[in-house]
Amino acid sequence: MTTATHRPVTTPEEPLGGAPSDSGAVVPAHVAIIMDGNGRWAVRRGLPRAEGHRRGVEALRRTVKSAIELGIRYLTVYSFSSENWRRPAAEVADLMGLLKLFVRRDLAELHRNNVRVRIIGAREGLAPDIGGLLEEAEALTRNNTGLTLVVAFNYGSRDEIARAMRALATDVAAGRLQPEAIDADAIATRLDTAGIPDPDLIIRTSGEERLSNFLLWQAAYAELVFMPILWPDFDRDALAEALDLFRQRDRRFGGLSAQTG
Ligand code: FPP
């Protein structure tokens, strides 16, 4: 592991970077996951895609537990993108149902485990029951101090950036902000992720190798790990493998590595 000379611009609530785990190994502070492959997992078994998503929620539960055990501070999961509305209505309904079930069934346990829930993504246009549940999850767990679970729901990075730009333009038009004062921090503090450190590691399962409109701004210095495993099969071993790959990376943040610098 190298020491960064430059840090990505952000407004973290606590210092960035990895923390030593119980075993002394450096653990990324923030891991973000594109949970891909539910549909293929189901189709390969002759099951409906909905079953793949249901098993995907089980994998999410396992991953939250493993993240806590491994000492990860922030876990962000891409649960529904702003583009997922293009899927057939029945599948969208399945995914909405699973989100509601996840919040109703798991919120109390997340709270007991000191998990703080944050939701990123556009709230406008969501069904009132969904919007209400998301608010309830955040309000109940607001003061928790353990893992922060960031659920990206109705999330698209370009939409998030456009909303931040709109907020900046509104401030400029109102005379509260000078155009010269617009810098990376001014943008970061208007994103949905304000206050959350940038991801150190982004994992995508299912073998696809792209970001699909996920955390495009925040990913500036993230290490990307693409794994062939389909999301419903993801478990603690797979997460540990991704962390091992992360440790082998030479993070320079635009500077020089410790070896050469
Ligand atoms: C990608 O699989 C996964 C999604 C579009 C949604 C991820 C959702 C979950 C893990 C369950 C829901 C969890 C919550 C908290 C709502 P895919 O359908 O794109 O799979 P494919 O690429 O194999 O078709």
Helical/strand content category? alpha/beta
What is the helix/strand order? EEEHHEHEHEHHEEH
Helicity level: 25-40%
Coarse morphology = globular
Describe the 3D structure:
This protein is α/β, with parallel strands linked by helices and about 260 residues long. The chain has a domain at about 30-155 and about 200-250: Undecaprenyl pyrophosphate synthetase (3-Layer(aba) Sandwich). Helix content is about 40%, strand content about 15%. The chain contains 7 helices and 8 strands. The strands form 2 sheets. The chain has a 6-stranded parallel sheet, sandwiched between helices. Strands 1-2 form a two-stranded antiparallel sheet. The protein is globular, with a radius of gyration of 19 Å. The two termini are about 15 Å apart. Farnesyl diphosphate (FPP) binds near residues 40 and 60. Homodimer. Pfam families: Prenyltransf (PF01255). Its cofactor is Mg(2+). Belongs to the UPP synthase family. InterPro entries: UPP_synth-like, UPP_synth-like_CS, UPP_synth-like_sf.
